[in-house]
Amino acid sequence: MPFVIDIDPVVFSLLGVPVRWYGLTLVIAAVIAIRLAQLGARRRGFGPEIVSDCVIWVGAAPLVGGRLLYVIQNEFGSLAEHPSHILMVWMGGLSFYGGLIGALLALVVFTRRRGLSLYAVMDVAAPAAAIGQAIGHLGCLIGGDSYGVPADLPWGVIYRNPAAMAPLGVPLHPTQAYEAILLGIMFAGLWLGRERLARLGAGAVAATYLLGLSAIRFGLFYLRDEPGVLFGLKTAQLIGLGIAALAIVLLFVARRTRATSTPLAWEASQP
Fold this sequence. Notes:
- By secondary structure, this protein is mainly alpha-helical.
- The chain has a domain at 1-10 and 131-271.
- The chain has helices at 21-44, 48-74, 96-114, 118-143, 175-192, 194-198, 204-220, 235-260; strands spanning 3-5, 10-14, 17-20, 157-159.
- The strands form two sheets. Strands 1-4 form a two-stranded parallel sheet.
- A hairpin with a 2-residue loop joins β2 (10-14) and β3.
């Protein structure tokens, strides 16, 4: 018997502004992720102000990157007629990989300006990002965002609330729950194994996260009702292959720098 979700995506209104489950879970996810990043940074020898400053840089970048890629993928043809749509997040959505790319670029700029090791900072951020994403997907599940294809399974979900983003009355794959569970498992592996991974060199934890993330999303997008664009693969799957290639290069660099003990030209060690 499929699970029925009949929950209003809007939790409450604050001064006339609707607060949705998705936004509320994002706030909870951010608080937990920042706390875990602070714990990880302390073990790496970074001061507490590093995480606070990094949050300012990385906080806005995923929103900008996510919105830009979403518009390019879904509204690029009409952008010339309606350029203001690029700012209207409430009329569309955010691309996950656009947000990830934006966050990575922000980390590059931040670490270069502060004279920090990019790879060490990425290693601190990786487990925090995994658990934050896992929690955030629970909000997607409640609101019906990022829903899966129809499924004749006992654990399928049926949405009843008219405000849900998913089709109503149809049993669907709960891809949001799948991703939350898999990301939670990956977080546990990264957090418990971070010291062992760190022995491979700076950047190994981040590379493992990126590889795992790409694999999870590549598989799950076979359960998402989106058109294929190349060789039957969907846009997110193609981007995921690129992210996986980057992760392999990062892992190679981590092992090489560990073997040679020679930092890259602009990579400075944190005392």
